[in-house]
Fold this sequence. Notes:
The protein has 401 residues and is mainly α. The chain has helices at 3-25, 89-95, 98-108, 112-125, 132-148, 153-165, 171-198, 210-228, 230-236, 239-242, 248-263, 265-292, 302-317, 327-335, 342-360, 362-369, 375-381, 388-398, and strands at residues 33-35, 44-48, 57-61, 67-71, 85-86. The chain has a five-stranded antiparallel beta sheet with strand order 4-3-2-1-5. Strand 2 (44-48) and strand 3 form a beta hairpin. Helix 1 (3-25) runs parallel beside helix 14, helix 7 packs antiparallel against helix 8 and helix 7 (171-198) packs across helix 12. The two termini are 28 Å apart.
Amino acid sequence: xxxxxxxxxxxxxxxxxxxxxxxxxxxxxxxxxxxxxxxxxxxxxxxxxxxxxxxxxxxxxxxxxxxxxxxxxxxxxxxxxxxxxxxxxxxxxxxxxxxxxxxxxxxxxxxxxxxxxxxxxxxxxxxxxxxxxxxxxxxxxxxxxxxxxxxxxxxxxxxxxxxxxxxxxxxxxxxxxxxxxxxxxxxxxxxxxxxxxxxxxxxxxxxxxxxxxxxxxxxxxxxxxxxxxxxxxxxxxxxxxxxxxxxxxxxxxxxxxxxxxxxxxxxxxxxxxxxxxxxxxxxxxxxxxxxxxxxxxxxxxxxxxxxxxxxxxxxxxxxxxxxxxxxxxxxxxxxxxxxxxxxxxxxxxxxxxxxxxxxxxxxxxxxxxxxxxxxxxxxxxxxxxxxxxxxxxxxxxxxxx
Length: 401
């Protein structure tokens, strides 16, 4: 199979996975509200004008404009005694708090600040000096490209890796650091999810995932210890076999970059703490979205929401549809089912994406103006045509290895 055929097959699989996940997600999603009668008769479809009234009745405005009053005793209830009233997309939007949705954007926007600082710290561990302002611009541009291209979250990493490499002669180390930045972020996420799911209530759906997350976390810790073990590296590493690989020298530099980061324990710990901080801020914005859309969201279940959102972020980073389109919604649909109707949960997933995209919009300006490029690259690109040869030589010197 040719590389082109493999790429096409991979794209087909990604699209099929996205379609299948979205098909499952939209099941139960409706435009209008549905009230399930206790006698088993067809659902009452319309627009619920409010909560159960003081006299125990619910008013439903039917599609033809008529009002129907339904007694609470005539409405079916679930195992917890909650009336089976499912809100549709129209009511989910109508009942939402527009000010809270704007507040969610304001809460999420500062996430870029610790994200950029983390990148700067990790680069500093490799003795690569890139200013905070440059890291901020690269992070904005990378976040925007994550949403604006079909490659999903890989696009932002590829962008940052290439243009960070233009800031230094240590290009392999710069590219590797961007990859390590992603690893640090995912490791911190896994640590938090494993911790929260461990302490979730026994009846929670998340509690069932605790053994899996703890296993992944344990495997990561053991793998890291084995990788860094001097005994393993001295006696068990197949150096003769590795030395025959075409890119052996590059692999050595990648390996050295990773080990150098582990030696800078203060920077590594600080990077993980920054990740936890930025994720808490981001999830605070997501929780605000859930409150704005009238889900059952309160301080009593905030950790369950956080674990659900964390799990969604992990799913989003897995290979598959761009930005986890469909798979993330499916994750929310499963874990948030006890807190809202399918329509409400789909609205939550949509607005979470909208909030993140809105906060990434400054990256459009960064990419459009080319302000992410180092000054010497900009100067080279602005040379007069007569200096074509010099410009070509300069570009060759700055190109990644």
